[in-house]
Amino acid sequence: MDEDLTDDIGLSDDPLADAIRDELAEHLEDRDEDELDDVTEEDIQNIVAEVMEGSIEDLATDTYERILSNDEGLERYHQTIEGFQERLEERWGEPLELLERLIIWSMECGRAINQEHGFQARQEDNYQFEALVHLHSRSVQVALEIHHLLKGGFADGAFARWRSLYELAITSSFISQHGNETAESFLNYHNVWEYYFAETYQEHQDDLNVEPLEPEVLEDLEEIKEELVDQFGESIDDNGYGSGWAAEAHSGSGGPSLHSMKEDVDLEHLSPYYKLACESVHAGSKGTLDRLGIIRHKDIEQPSVLLSGPSNAGLNLPGQLTAISLAQVTTDLLMIHLNSPSLADMLGIQMLVDDIEQEFAEASETLEQDDREATEEWANQDIVDISLNYIDPSDLFSEAFFEEYTDFDSLEEFEDALPVGLDNVKNGDSINLAVDDVVQEHSDFDSFRDLVDTAMEIYARRNVDLSEFDIDGDTFPDERQSK
Predict the structure, then answer these.
(1) What's the CA gap between 357 and 430, in Å, rounded?
(2) Exposed/middle/buried for residue 150 (C-beta within 10 Å: 0-12, 13-18, 19+)
(3) Among residues 190, 96, 87, 175, which one has the least CA distance to residue 476?
(4) pLDDT class for 469, splitting at 50, 70, 90?
(5) How distant is the alpha carbon of residue 206 from its chain centre?
(6) What are the domain boundaries of the chain?
(7) How far apart are CA 360 and CA 362, in angstroms?
(8) What is the pLDDT of residue 115?
(9) How far is residue 399 CA from its own chain's centroid?
């Protein structure tokens, strides 16, 4: 029997492993030597299993309480985000302000037309007016959400929300072109959708552990659905897929869909952007690996990064598209009662959209150029220069690194073997050849540069917030994590 049975589970920096080791030692220390010799691996596993549950719960509680009491971390985050917001405002402030002005203008147009014509429209069962007002108010709200995300530096989130705005623009234009009956069908279709939702809810209510639907609820919904079928035809009942309301007005082959409706209203030219925006919504490979918030220069070496926070990059595309789609929905609403003020609004809005597109394009072009220059500067730095000038050698070259990759046991022993001190090799362009000879003799590395490169990679994986090396200052520090 080994002198210390706790060696069987090893030492670890993991608090849970440490707790298990301590508990195991406590269970064994009262046994005499004869009893210890009889302890089997199964006995140890049973003891470990016995203490695991309580240890995990204690660890979870300690971690939970530590997170809740970590005011310093919150304050540090808030200070960092304030600096990031200032830089974002400096770079994108002008186009973001113009976009906000467009959203407010659209909001005021909707409010004015609803106040002037809303009551009469309801009295006259003008369903087209009612549908377009509802679609417009929702579009303004979505545009405000997008603007808020852009101001926060979340281009991919803003792009995902533009997808909804684009769908609203298609729906608005379709109803605008196809009149009152199509609008009435649209306003009533939610009853069809609710019936099929209730069916799905009922199917899964036991698994969800939610209040069950009363039988009469589904019966009432089915009755309403059948009344709508009688009124608008069988085609409105599309099993709740969302487009049955447009079936009667739809001119294409097959049932209506967003794809066919956007062709009907001449908005299909935005399809490539819509397809790309869908990837910002879904959990696919494209949307996960290619982010608007990361600028990539294929002809320049770049650090491998993961985007886990806001970024100054990529705001132009969702910003421009938001202006275009919101203007489309607002124009559809203004066209209902066309007069000189509404015509002036439509023409003025288009002028503002042109300005927004131009300002976002110029800001993006400037950012791309600045980032290219910063990336080239980063790529031209030697790995030895970066490592030895920015990182303390005792942090870069750990004892574990020397033990695994060299014949040396410590940094001190390594430095003693070198013909010159580390301070004299901080310039990677002029490394003494004798230094390479020492590295080759005591390791499998071909050069000092290769040794430093490996040490740097290990260090980065363990410690580095790459924002420390962010040259242009345009990114949020916590957004970059080494792969």
Answers:
(1) 49
(2) buried
(3) 87
(4) very low
(5) 33
(6) 5-68, 90-297+313-364, 381-482
(7) 6
(8) 96
(9) 38
